[in-house]
Amino acid sequence: MGWRALRSPSKPPSQRLDRDLKKGVRYIEEMRDTMLNEAMKAARVTDMEYASEIVDLLNAAYLDLQIAGVVIDGEVDITITESADQTTGETTYTVSDNSDIEDQLVLQAMYTYVKAYFGSLDEKLAASYDLQRRKLANATGYTDFGDTPAEG
After folding, report:
1. Alpha-carbon span 32 to 35, nearest angstrom
2. What global pTM score does this model have?
């Protein structure tokens, strides 16, 4: 197996991302400051076609953190409705995002999970998520393991 030369892109990654975000601006502008929008930005996704997969990953991250013993104030509550315009054929997405998780450490772990598992598995990001999950599970104030008196 040989190596192949990578073509140097004409624009730096930040400018390419800005260009891609402008393509999906009609969707993302409507969802500014929502959990779904932030997760889509983290995964560098601008096409609403993938939004339901992002929501599934957010739900999986939420449950995975709970399984690890992390107590999360709030929940993921995102609904996406897809409809097609009969005259133009354009697909329109209506997003209802009533998620109320505000803890930035929990949100960052969830966004890392989305980045790690969206598309193909990114081993380094998955390891980063595992570390974040372990730190949250061992941190004071993020679990209720010590809140109940021991029987005996």
Report:
1. 9
2. 0.74
